[in-house]
């Protein structure tokens, strides 16, 4: 089962993904993509760490997400990626177009082959106005295209608003 969980900032998407992981009854591997570049981001990361069960395996991977997934996915595991848009921002910040295309393609290629349960959390950024600035527009465009590709490859797609999940593909609950 591959699940894409989309929502806005503070929508409850991470909490939902963590609840699904716990309810799976499987060993959980949590792949964190955030980089703590400032004090506020350190606090956000600490909040996420405190909320997770201590027995979950945690992996920090900022760029090579497909490799991390391939190395850790097993039939008896639930792998939770939080969050895809931070990973995308990390790749775009590298300003290495060939690496961006390679990593994006690798993720899309590996996802359908992975055993076990995969949960991918991502921010839906395309609900507002077209942003000012070329880099911000590129980020929103790339996130939107990536979400569409992932949604095709996932068994279930959930959208979260105000902590409430809405099944866009598949079922929940």
From TrEMBL:
UniProt organism field: Lysobacter auxotrophicus
UniProt signal peptide: none
Similarity-based family: Belongs to the CobU/CobP family.
Gene Ontology MF terms: kinase activity; nucleotidyltransferase activity
Organism classification: Bacteria, Pseudomonadati, Pseudomonadota, Gammaproteobacteria, Lysobacterales
Keyword GTP-binding among record annotations: yes
Task performed by this protein: Catalyzes ATP-dependent phosphorylation of adenosylcobinamide and addition of GMP to adenosylcobinamide phosphate.
Gene it is expressed from: cobU
Keywords: ATP-binding, Cobalamin biosynthesis, GTP-binding, Kinase, Nucleotide-binding, Nucleotidyltransferase, Transferase
Pathway: Cofactor biosynthesis; adenosylcobalamin biosynthesis; adenosylcobalamin from cob(II)yrinate a,c-diamide: step 6/7; Cofactor biosynthesis; adenosylcobalamin biosynthesis; adenosylcobalamin from cob(II)yrinate a,c-diamide: step 5/7
Catalytic activity, reaction form: adenosylcob(III)inamide + ATP = adenosylcob(III)inamide phosphate + ADP + H(+); adenosylcob(III)inamide phosphate + GTP + H(+) = adenosylcob(III)inamide-GDP + diphosphate; adenosylcob(III)inamide + GTP = adenosylcob(III)inamide phosphate + GDP + H(+)
InterPro entries: CobU/CobP, P-loop_NTPase
A Pfam short name: CobU
Protein name per the record: Bifunctional adenosylcobalamin biosynthesis protein
Domain of life: Bacteria
Broadest EC class assigned to this enzyme: transferase
